[in-house]
Amino acid sequence: MTISDLFRSDLKVVNIGLTSFKEALDSVGVPAVQVDWKPPVDVDPALLRAVRSHRAQIEAANQKAMAKILAAQPALVGLEKALDVIPGMKPNLILHSGPPITWDRMCGPMRGGIMAALMYEGRAKTPAEAEKLAASGEIEYAPCHEHSAVGPMAGIVSASMPVFLVKNEENGNTAYCTMNEGLGKVLRYGAYGEDVIKRLKWMEQVLYPALKKAVAKLGRVDLKNIIAQALHMGDEVHNRNRAATSLLYRILAPAIVTTSADPKTTADVLEFINKNDHFFLNLSMPASKAGLDAGRNVPGSSVVVVMARNGTDFGVQLAGTGDAWFTGPADVPDALYFPGYTKADANPDIGDSSITETNGLGGFAIAASPAIVQFVGGTADDALNYTRQMYEITAAENSVYQVPALNFRGTPTGIDVVKVVEKNILPFIDTGVAHKEPGVGQVGAGVLNAPLEPFKKAFEGFARTL
Amino acid sequence: MTISDLFRSDLKVVNIGLTSFKEALDSVGVPAVQVDWKPPVDVDPALLRAVRSHRAQIEAANQKAMAKILAAQPALVGLEKALDVIPGMKPNLILHSGPPITWDRMCGPMRGGIMAALMYEGRAKTPAEAEKLAASGEIEYAPCHEHSAVGPMAGIVSASMPVFLVKNEENGNTAYCTMNEGLGKVLRYGAYGEDVIKRLKWMEQVLYPALKKAVAKLGRVDLKNIIAQALHMGDEVHNRNRAATSLLYRILAPAIVTTSADPKTTADVLEFINKNDHFFLNLSMPASKAGLDAGRNVPGSSVVVVMARNGTDFGVQLAGTGDAWFTGPADVPDALYFPGYTKADANPDIGDSSITETNGLGGFAIAASPAIVQFVGGTADDALNYTRQMYEITAAENSVYQVPALNFRGTPTGIDVVKVVEKNILPFIDTGVAHKEPGVGQVGAGVLNAPLEPFKKAFEGFARTL
Fold it and tell me: How would you list the strands of the sheet with A174-178, edge to edge?
């Protein structure tokens, strides 16, 4: 058949790629089917060939990394001050979310969070003093992730902040995270008002000792078990933590009652947790971190062990590329904005909480939590489809973390950067949204796909190790 | 075309009714499609005509009943001793689940529960004494449902038992239910050992005063809100109450702490609730009862306001037939049996807990709780299909009680006995399973369809009122 024969016959078209071709055919009544396919990400062909020629070796390395990640047994084993436990912590060091960044490139909410921390630490009396000190060079900054820690949103950890100790009992490593402050005007969203500092002081002086005593009495709290149950109860433990917070509360409450100084303290502590359905987020994050850290430093593995944003850059680390960060600009999420705010007020995506997605939770498990998709106008079927798509780019399924609506299938776990590039499908992330100016706080919550650039760079960096 | 022409041509068959016809055609390679249809229930044709000629009137009456049922605002407003609050309660009266029944026809677990109650009340010292007294004629028996009450399994309520007061704040009526004892060897499953009585005494002397003070401090606990949330968290509030119990616990705990006599009592009370994920069942039941009672006595309505089993008979009451009971034998459920037990040990279906299904919850909302279907070898899709089928026989949807996996569709609510008969689809019920002998306790949990006979009789009784 020649080309001219082809166009003389009745056309039946299968279109791959740009949908505009199909739309043109639709408009003139030619039957056409659209295939849901995108070309691979445009990367150096030599690097793509290098990866493809090492396919079996990469697969074996990925299975090794995934075995360690899936075997993780995260448990809450205690609370301490950051200075006393976080490796490398010191009085003039402030940890932040995402990849490394200098003060001059930091976004508004991260600056606001640092200012709040400096006032909380008593190193500054006013926001102006705090801002001056922050930029003076006296204060050092480093990513939480480089200190076995994670932090939601701005992710600020300063020396005297209490932190949860979450131990991966299978591997022996520990991850750290501050306690969740609640919603609205809070440090992690960049707010630094008097009420913010006052709440942090109450958390240090009342909440922390109460929880520390309760956890000491309990010995350990099995976080893997709570997360597994919460996924059966409508949580994805990133943007929805209502069930996990409830289950944790039930475990903690009797221990708080029996170890507490007095009934007033007990009641205040219980009410603080009861009023904050996100209290568990600061445990689902280090639980994920403690597992993923066990999968680090597996040569030849293309599995993502960190996705994190500092509100300016989105950074990725791989099991097979050591401590290298691969970064690109962070995007502004689609969101349900609080009354009075719009996307124009929103800071680009920020926080280490995407460690949950990196661990097969959050957006990867959103089929277990369709209420989140409803926020942004989606349906329960959309939620199923988001999770289904993530199986395309992951290396394994977590048999303990299951999605009831997918007939209890394990969550898609372990993002394989090779699949991301070859299929051109980007990780789906649930997120909170901070105001772009310091001092304001949260303005919404929503969803987005990770940006392409860090994954493209990670692929290239990985390919060069082969 | 004549019959002989028909059989000379190639057959393409649409089969309605018995599947064996299709199977015969399949075996000889004739294309055949099976339509999922059953003939209507075989009822007196005159009565069927009577109902069909009053279709519009029945529909209007049903909408009136449903408006009252759906508008219900059930709230926990207090706890009191049964004798002090339940209408018509007296010292020698024992309430039981299901339709009316005499001692000689009662099943093993109901007899066991009554024996436990008589020992708990101090009217008998040994099981033998209790059995003798129970059969002596000194003790009167009546259904919970005839005293604005409901009880799970044997449903036993005696004079000094504490009960929850659940008020329908929209309509003003109140429903009553005892507190849940936990699983295993408990009164409601027919056990009467020393540990059973000891637990009931602790509940009366420690748990009851603590909860009474806490609820008094709170004023009210909104049960409609808790149930609505729990359906988003994997509960159907009949066989699964983990989320609802957790949410209730979070509300009660701070109030218990601040009103409690001492920290030991507080801790014991919290641990008791924490160890029993079914604690909320004894609130979802009166919450359903309080709503459905508002829909009673609507002439011309074919809506079911009670489905209840006494372990011998399954009974139905309708909005349009006053206090009449329509009964038939109760079936033995399909179940997951505890180790060491089989279906041969099981008592026929028992308890007032099917008031949840009558209110669009439990088996009617099982799509929200697929883990229950997994118990008995089913899949998440089976759970969706059970709920979808219940829309066929219900008069309305509850916009507050929603099923996430059906894109937040309201639960199918208000069983219409006309639809049950015309479509020959029977209500789907989740249930616990009691050992058939008194003194043993729970042996499993499962699902079943309601028996046909009570619905057939209810239809006929209803038709005669027209």
Answer: A174-178, A162-168, A74-81, A221-222
Give the pLDDT confidence of B364-386 residue by residue, as tens digits.
999 999 988 887 788 999 999 99
Residue B35 has pLDDT above 70, yes or no: no
Residues of B in contact with A258 (CB under 8 A): 263-264, 267
Nearest residue in chain A measured CA to CA from B384: A405
Q: Is A249 on the interface with B (CB under 8 A)?
A: yes
3-state secondary structure chain A: CCHHHHHHCCCCEEEECCHHHHHHHHHCCCCEEEECCCCCCCCCHHHHHHHHHCHHHHHHHHHHHHHHHHCCCEEEEEEEEHHHHCCCCCCCEEEECCCCCCHHHCCHHHHHHHHHHHHHCCCCCCHHHHHHHHHCCCCEEEEHHHHCECCCCCCCECCCCEEEEEEECCCCCEEEEECCCCCCCCHHHCCCCHHHHHHHHHHHHHHHHHHHHHHHHHCCEEHHHHHHHHHCCCCCCCCCCHHHHHHHHHHHHHHHHHHCCCHHHHHHHHHHHHCCCCCCHHHHHHHHHHHHHHCCCCCCCCEEEEEEEECCEEEEEECCCCCCCEEEECCCCEEEECCCCCHHHECCCEECCCHHHHCCCHHHHHHHCCHHHHHCCCCHHHHHHHHHHHHHHEEEEEEEEEEHHHCCEEEEEEEEHHHHHHHCCCCEEEEEEEECCCCCCEEEEEEEECCHHHHHHHHHHHHHHC
Helix ranges (H only) for B181-262 are 194-202, 208-218, 223-231, 242-259
Q: Please indicate whether, in this complex, the C-beta atoms of A380 and B247 are within 8 angstroms of each other.
A: no
What is the per-residue pLDDT across B206-263, written as a single tens digit (0 to 9) for each?
999 999 999 999 999 999 999 999 999 999 999 999 999 999 999 999 999 999 988 9
Q: A407 contacts in B (CB within 8 Å)? A: 370, 379-381
pLDDT in tens, A337-380: 999 999 999 999 999 999 999 999 999 999 999 988 887 788 99
CA angle A223, A225, A228 (to 5 degrees): 110
Please write the tens of the pLDDT for every residue from A453-463: 999 999 999 99
How much is the pLDDT for A17?
63
Closest to A308 measured CA to CA, from A445, A184, A150: A150
User: What domains, with CATH codes, occur in chain B?
Assistant: 3-35 (no CATH), 45-68+296-464 (3.90.1700.10), 74-286 (3.90.1710.10)
Q: What is the pTM of this model?
A: 0.92
**How sure is the predictor about A31, in pLDDT bands with cuts at 50, 70 and 90?**
confident
* Look-up of token digits 């221990």: A255
The answer to whether the beta carbons of residues B45 and B38 sit under 8 Å apart is no
ipTM of the complex: 0.89
Q: What is the mean pLDDT of residues B119-145?
A: 98
**Length of chain B, please?**
466
Residues 259-318 of A with CB under 8 A from B: 260, 263-264, 266-267, 270-271, 274
Q: Does B43 touch chain A (CB under 8 A)?
A: no
Encoded tokens for B202: 């602790």
- The residue with tokens 């006979």 is B453
Q: Are A232 and B371 an interchain contact pair (Cβ–Cβ within 8 Å)? A: yes
Structure-token pair, residue A153? 């949103």
pLDDT for res B272: 96
* Contact yes or no for A76/A215 (Cβ under 8 A): yes
Query: Which residue, among B260, B273, B302, has the nearest Cα to B62 in the 3D structure?
Result: B302
> pLDDT digits over B294-335, tens only?
999 999 999 999 999 999 999 999 999 999 999 999 999 888
Residue B215: which residues within 8 A CB-CB, separation 6 or more?
Answer: B76, B77, B78, B79, B221, B252, B255
Strand partners, A337: A444
